[in-house]
Amino acid sequence: MYFFNIILLLNVDGVFTIVVVMIMNYIKRSTNGIEISHNGTTNYLKIGIRSYIDKLCIDNLSTFEGRIDAVKKKFNIKHKVPIYVDKNCILFSTRSIRDYDVIYFNYFEIIEQVADGDNCVVYFKDGTYISVNQSYKVVRKQILKTEYILGNL
Questions:
Q1: How far is residue 2 CA from its own chain's centroid?
Q2: I want to staple 91 with a disulfide (CB 3.0 to 4.6 A). Which of 48, 51, 75, 104 is the partner?
């Protein structure tokens, strides 16, 4: 199951164009698989987080490992490597994928991140937010890594 916005555009010639845009805010583990936040709602899937991200990558003619290896080689990033899925989704994590508490955020859906004591609160375009058990500094560093990649594609 994937989560998209479908946008119907009318150009000057009167021709409609359909644009499909990924709108996922984040993916995290839950007790029975993964939790996916999108467009103000949350869905649960019985699949592993790595398998789900791999499926997203395969839909864009790559794999989870392929994206990780390419970013590592091109940008010399060794840990918590952002994953470029497509032009509307680049995922970055708060922790190692092996950590149960890992959260993968879609960079393009974030509007703000705010320190809250030892935690960080991440706000999304759809008006939702999540408090992350990770410091603002760590989240900000991951965002800067992601922006570096985007600025050098």
A1: 13
A2: 104
Q: Are 25 and 124 in contact (CB under 8 A)?
A: yes
Nearest to 104 by CA among 55, 143, 61: 143
Q: Token pair of 112, please? A: 């703000």
Strand partners for 132? 120
pTM for the complete prediction? Answer: 0.85
The model's pLDDT over 68-77, given as tens digits with 9 standing for 90+, comes to 999 999 999 9
* β-strand partners of 122: 113, 130
SS3 annotation, 21-77: EECEEEEEEECCEEEEEECCEEEEECCCHHHHHHHHHHCCCCCHHHHHHHHHHHHCC
Helix axes 136-151 and 64-75, enclosed angle (nearest 10)? 80
- H or E element, residue 136: helix 136-151
Contact 106, 78 (CB under 8 A): no
